[in-house]
Design a protein that fits this description.
- The protein has about 250 residues and is of the alpha/beta class.
- Helix content is about 20%, strand content about 20%.
- The protein is built from four helices and ten strands; from the N terminus they run E-E-E-E-E-H-E-H-E-E-E-H-H-E.
- Strands 3, 4, 5, 6, 7, 8, 9 and 10 form an eight-stranded mixed sheet that branches.
- Helix 1 packs across helix 3 and helix 3 packs across helix 4.
- The protein is globular.
- The structure holds zinc ion.
- The site of zinc ion has 6 residues, from helix 3.
């Protein structure tokens, strides 16, 4: 996006104004209700000054059972980073499944999702561009990557922020990332909406009722047109964010 996709507090994305997109948290999510298999713990002693808190990365699960569209033509792999215990893993998994169903309209199959718990220094658990850049740089994850944060330090506070390449030229570590604060409603639709911004590299919204890329991310807004799918898959493939189906 040559412009950022910004989302208004509570719902919807505002017209692109700045270089970032943010999101606000309105309420706390339940504590973890499920304990997922812990395969191992990677200690990522990633560049941190002596005495600073280390960054640890704990893989929680690898999801392969996302809905597969009848005509799957593109594969999407996601990394999902959980930065705060306010997030329920059940909720995140259900939302990722819903997002996968929505993107399936475009023949996109979410073929793999790596769910990671990251124990980051306190300052990096919220969305805060300077801190979030440091975190993204230290983690250096394949993209796209979704970050489920402890909240946002940005004002105005948005409940989700997405970075394409075009709106992250001054902060390249954030390219192809999405940052979501607790309390974001209709989470599956929010994830799908923000991923479309990332894949299209565009902050554009449409006025068509029922369309996923309407400013408001509400339960009725889930449709993507053939033209949108073409742009999503072309741009996503060009950026290496989508791959062909084997
Ligand atoms: Zn938007």
């Amino acid at each position: 996006m040559s412009k950022p996709k910004k989302r208004k507090p509570e719902r919807g994305c505002a017209p692109h104004l700045a270089e970032v997109l943010t999101f606000s948290a309105k309420s706390r999510r339940p504590l973890l209700s499920a304990i997922l298999p812990v395969f191992f713990i990677m200690l990522a002693l990633l560049a941190h000054p002596a005495g600073a808190q280390a960054l640890t990365v704990e893989p929680l699960a690898v999801l392969h059972d996302l809905p597969r569209p009848a005509e799957a033509r593109h594969r999407l792999e996601l990394r999902v980073v959980v930065l705060h215990e306010a997030w329920s893993h059940d909720e995140i998994q259900a939302a990722v499944h819903e997002a996968a169903r929505i993107l399936g309209q475009c023949g996109i199959h979410g073929s793999r999702v790596d769910l990671l718990r990251v124990n980051a220094p306190q300052a990096q658990r919220h969305f805060d561009p300077p801190q979030s850049r440091q975190l993204a740089r230290a983690l250096d994850l394949p993209k796209p990557a979704l970050f489920f944060t402890a909240g946002t330090r940005q004002l105005p506070a948005y409940d989700a922020v997405a970075y394409g390449r075009s709106n992250s030229r001054r902060s390249p570590e954030l390219a192809s990332t999405v940052w979501i604060a607790p309390g974001a409603r209709d989470l599956g639709i929010v994830i799908a909406h923000e991923l479309v911004h990332v894949l299209m590299d565009s902050g554009e919204h449409v006025a068509t009722p029922g369309n996923l890329m309407a400013e408001d991310t509400t339960p009725g807004n889930t449709v993507l047109t053939a033209a949108q799918c073409g742009r999503i898959t072309d741009a996503g493939s060009r950026q290496g964010l989508l791959r062909g189906v084997d």
